[in-house]
Design goal:
eight-stranded parallel beta barrel, TIM Barrel, alpha/beta, 11 helices, single chain, two-stranded antiparallel ribbon
Length: about 375
Amino acid sequence: MTANALFSPIQVGDISVSNRIVMAPLTRSRAVSGDVPNELAITYYAQRASAGLIVSEGTQIRPDGKGYVTTPGIYSPAQIEGWKKVTSAVHEAGGKIVAQIWHVGRISHPDHTGGLQPVAPSAIRANSKTFLSPGAFEPVAEPRALSGDEIRQVVEDYGTAAKNAVAAGFDGVEIHGANGYLVDQFLRDGANKRTDEYGGPIENRVRFMTEVVDAVIAAIGAGRTGIRLSPVTPANDLSDSDPQPLFDLAVAELAKRNIAFIHMIEGATQGPRDIVPDFDFAKLRKSFGGRYIANNGYTPEFARDVVARGEADLIAFGRSFISNPDLVERIRLNAPLAEPDRDTFYGGGAKGYTDYPALAGVA
């Protein structure tokens, strides 16, 4: 490929995108009563519609899947109607957007779940924290282990969430299988100590992930289905004793299903890429064979080089999109990138959300 490959169109499953730059999911904690997207979200996402593909902020599939204050859902009629306004605005601006569907599992607190104890593969409390209210970062609660029947219900709820997302106008969904949340908790043996068909050997620990993927495919089709993975990140106190064979198997199973993409966090989320120096991400990309979105520590120059060399199909940028609504054009022009205001990442109103300016003369 050429050095301009980052700006070339590409087909991602059933989704045609205009360039290879992806807006990564970014929790902003600005939903309103009922976990409905804030009206400001319409502007926020439309401002960033020049991305080849937007992945929405994490959007819980059911009330007990919530882990942080004022995050939006995709399980109620009001939430679906709220998201319709967002997706319509993105499409009117020429963009494409998928919903990241999310269940946080043990990374929660009864304050978020109507007083219910968080659920997880096993009753192991994470050494992690959650936002209980803006500015209040508190330890997560001890979870209880899901029963077999409850697991099957959660799987069904992922499929329902995918249907709801398409009804809300999303072009597809990304299953959140990363960063120590529920799907990841089932995958990795640091959180999964089950002795039934969902625990123990890697063939069992990938089962929940594949059942979720199959439920989403049945609901909306493989061409609209993607997944995010983070094989070696320690985020939310998660680990695995031998991640390479585990994720070799997980990705091989995903390849069989011909899904639209995998979105891979390479290394520690928002941290070093080489946290596990001998982990082979290139092997996973080759095994998958489909569209590979690379994420973590990408500068514009690094992104250009990786796509030009064919080592990834698309590159996801996260925090750069917070403060640069016109990030695609800034990268195209080699223009300076604005720095985000960390104090306004979570909660609040327009400040630090929809008030970052584009370059002069750039829409």
